[in-house]
Specification:
Elements lengths: L1 H5 L3 H21 L3 H11 L3 H21 L3 H10 L1 H20 L3 H19 L11 H18 L3 H10 L4 H26 L4 H9 L1 H15 L4 H24 L3
Helix pairs in contact: 2-3, 2-4, 2-12, 3-4, 4-10, 4-11, 4-12, 5-10, 6-8, 6-10, 7-9, 7-13, 8-9, 9-10, 9-13
């Protein structure tokens, strides 16, 4: 096992340790952002495929932990309430995973980034839009888009959080649903990229090592998140979404 890890340069290993800690810390505060941070940083050093492989296990474990912070009753109620979103997300994820390998995703990623930026900015400056609820149609549309984006790029946070924010989901419920969505997505994304070959023996061991710094960062972040009220949480979430939208548009210019 150690021999496999030593095949990576020390600078690369330490880079991912640092990035996963920071990503875990941010996720602990707002409940999302880990794939975006890890992929953004890895793309900056021209290692997007390795970054995608690395994030798979830390993302899965931190999402399971995020869900474990809530009771069984809350979990079951959330699954029932958001079942159409979850199912359509998983369907889109498998299609998206194939697109990662065979298609040019620039237009999709850039377009979604623009939508996320505009809609989150509108909410940030408190322009009142039409009231929305968790309808089957709306949740299915957002679920498919989230799945396509998640499977194709490893990033499913912005569209999920945008949807939950747009239907005024309370802070604790939002964190639970985010963790639930991301946990399901992480499992199926891992399976999908075992099939594509992006996650293999070598990259899988590196990903396993990154669980520790990601979890340490998340524990610190969760401690900070407890001091945020609903309005502060909403503000930080929307600002993060604006940054995420800009990142997706920028990334679409240099995608893989």
């Amino acid at each position: 096992m150690l021999n496999v890890i030593l095949e990576f340069e020390t600078s690369t290993f330490l880079f991912f340790v640092t990035v996963c800690f920071v990503a875990g810390f941010i996720k602990g505060i707002i409940g999302f952002g880990m794939p975006m941070i890890i992929l953004g940083a890895s793309a900056a050093i021209s290692l997007p495929s390795l970054g995608l492989a690395v994030l798979l296990l830390p993302t899965l474990v931190t999402n399971i932990y995020q869900v474990s912070l809530f009771g069984r009753t809350e979990l079951i109620a959330s699954v029932k309430e958001f079942k159409f979103f979850l199912l359509s997300c998983l369907l889109g994820l498998f299609v998206g995973a194939k697109l990662f390998v065979v298609a040019n995703l620039n237009s999709l990623v850039g377009g979604i980034g623009l939508v996320v930026l505009v809609l989150s900015f509108v909410q940030l400056i408190k322009i009142k839009g039409p009231e929305r609820n968790n309808s089957m149609r709306l949740s299915s549309i957002f679920g498919v888009i989230t799945g396509l984006l998640g499977g194709g790029t490893g990033i499913w946070g912005p569209t999920t959080v945008l949807y939950l924010t747009s239907i005024a989901t309370p802070k604790q419920h939002q964190i639970l649903v985010q963790g639930l969505t991301f946990a399901f997505s992480s499992v199926f994304l891992l399976i999908a990229h075992l099939y594509t070959g992006i996650f293999n023996h070598k990259t899988g061991l590196l990903s396993a090592f990154m669980i520790l710094p990601a979890m340490i960062g998340m524990l610190f972040g969760v401690g900070v998140q407890k001091y945020l009220n609903q309005e502060k949480f909403r503000l930080i979430t929307l600002i993060s979404l604006c940054v995420g939208g800009i990142y997706l548009m920028f990334r679409s210019l240099y995608l893989f």
